[in-house]
Design goal:
Blueprint lengths: L36 E2 L17 E2 H10 L6 H5 L5
Antiparallel strand pairs: 1-2
């Protein structure tokens, strides 16, 4: 959502447990380098369109994400610009 300046929305993921079948889930995590810049991609912000999200390094974003304490998408509100 940050990279697309709000054009592409992410969905919340959840799974349903079925007791009749065994299920194996494997969590994987992908991450940028800690000092990588995260912000709207200029090519996705058309001429004159406002930027809706801050640019920041990945370390700052990760700290905001961790401090949101699993409150849904609360971390996304913290990186929005106030217009």
């Amino acid at each position: 959502m940050i990279l697309s300046n709000g054009k592409f929305k992410s969905i919340s993921h959840k799974s349903t447990v079925k007791t009749e079948k065994e299920r194996l889930s494997l969590a994987t995590f992908q991450s940028s380098s800690y000092d990588a810049c995260i912000g709207p991609v200029p090519e996705l912000v058309r001429g004159g369109e406002a930027y809706y999200h801050k640019s920041m390094d990945h370390g700052q974003f990760f700290n905001i994400f961790l401090s949101s304490k699993l409150k849904g998408k609360g971390h996304m509100e913290a990186v929005k610009l106030q217009n």
